[in-house]
Amino acid sequence: MADIRRVLVIYVGGTIGMKKKNGVYVPEQNYMVAEIRRNPTLHDESYAKKTSLDKNTLALPESNGIRVVYTIKEDKELKDSSNVNVQDWIDMATDIKTDYDNYIGFVIIHGTDTMAYTASSLSFMIENLHKPVIITGSQIPLAEQRSDGWSNLHGAIYIAGHYKIPEVGLFFNNKLFRGNRCSKKSSESFDAFISPNFPPLLTMAVEVDVRTDLFWEMGDGNEFIFNSHMNRNVAIFRVFPSITEKTLQSFLQAPMEGVVLQTYGVGNFPDNRPELREILQRARQRGVILLNCTQCPEGGLSDSYATGKVLTDAGVILGDDITPEAALSKLGYVLGKTSNREERLQKLEENLRGEITQRRIDRHD
Ligand code: ASN
């Protein structure tokens, strides 16, 4: 008898299940399960018949004595991920919480456009995660030829059923990344995501290379905690040379409570424009929290330049090598969790879910 591993697949939307209507791609409701059912790599129909699986439950072929049986829960309103919002993150986390004890792993089928935001946010919203939550999708729909969705979907379900990875991961093009380390890097390539500052947790080739040494170590807490309160008065501001005082000032106005300041290089900002610095300082005095993160697609921050020190002196927190997506999610989470300023600052500096490397580059000494 095979060891049966049950996985819950939460289907939110994305290109993977889209079809063209009036010349544009839109999600197609009630189609994914039937489409997957026709693919023998993803579904063993004879096993399903023999064991009378219900219509939304499918089974991977047995391998090495393991049978992954997965149930697809399709959202009532499938979405292009450009339409995903905070409530959708809450719904996904609620689904996981509700069925946490019934499955050994979870897969979320999601569009690629905001996949890195969802992966980051879920990593903060869920505390003490002991099971894999793997987000995946595709660049070409399953309904079309050459879809990358088949291998992404198979890999995600296979990983969720085979490996005890206590993380929210993003699986794409044979690599499983820590979700809060990713950014979408290409609108066209199958290799659509990068995790610039942290290696993949797992790589699929002829062998499956699992980096257990990289898994995020949980604290002592065992109880699954779901933080549903994400502060929505947070935003990202990308600094640019022609910035005016008015622009910065309007951006930081109430109800803004937290801003990710995407700065140049290792975290630099003009130090020859005291008026801009004053605007930041005034915002800070009003209670706005500022978190520094680099505009560079790779690398982190240091305070080695005068143009960077100007920000630390103004009370801007160093976000280390955090991605902008994770920085925004972390701000929303931390500001939603506590209203105590000191606690907020302390948590933002902490490595909460493996989202930063916590190292300082000091190249001028
Ligand atoms: N617009 C799509 C989405 O994010 C893109 C994709 O999934 N490849 O839902």
Could you characterize what this model shows?
By secondary structure, the chain is an alpha/beta fold. The chain contains 10 helices and 19 strands. It has helices spanning 32-37, 45-50, 86-98, 115-125, 149-162, 245-251, 274-285, 306-313, 324-337, 341-349; strands at residues 3-13, 18-21, 24-27, 57-59, 66-79, 105-109, 126-127, 133-136, 168-172, 175-178, 183-184, 193-194, 202-204, 208-210, 225-226, 234-238, 258-263, 289-294, 317-318. Helix 6 links the parallel strand 16 and strand 17. Helix 3 packs across helix 4. The termini are far apart. The model is unreliable at 361-365 (pLDDT under 50). The chain binds asparagine (ASN). Asparagine is lined by residues 13-15, 80-82, 111-113, 137, 139.
The H-level CATH homologous superfamily of the largest domain, spelled out, is L-asparaginase, N-terminal domain
Tell how many strands the DSSP assignment holds: 19
Shape descriptor: elongated
Name the average pLDDT: 96
The helical percent reads: 25-40%
- Give the strand content: 15-25%
Derived from helix and strand composition plus strand pairing, the structural class reads alpha/beta
